[in-house]
Amino acid sequence: MKIQRAIYRKTGVPREVCGVEEADWGEPGSGELGVRMEYAPIHPADINQLEGRYGRSVELPAVPGGEGCGVVERLGAGVPPEWLGRRVILPGGVGTWSEWCVVRMEGVRPVDPGLDPKQAAMLRINPATAWLLLKTVCEVGPGDWVLQNAGNSAVGRAVAQLCGAWGIRVVSAVRRLDSVPVAEPGEVVVLDDEALPGRVAELAGSARLPLALNAVGGESALRLGRLLNEGGTVVTYGGMAKQPLRIPTGLLIFKDIRWRGFWLTRWWDAASEAAREEVLAGVERLALQGVLKSEVDSVFGLGELEAALERAQQGGRTGKVLLRLSRDCGGNLDA
Question: What domains sit in the chain, N to C, each tagged with a CATH number?
Answer without folding.
Answer: 2-122+294-329 (3.90.180.10), 128-265 (3.40.50.720)
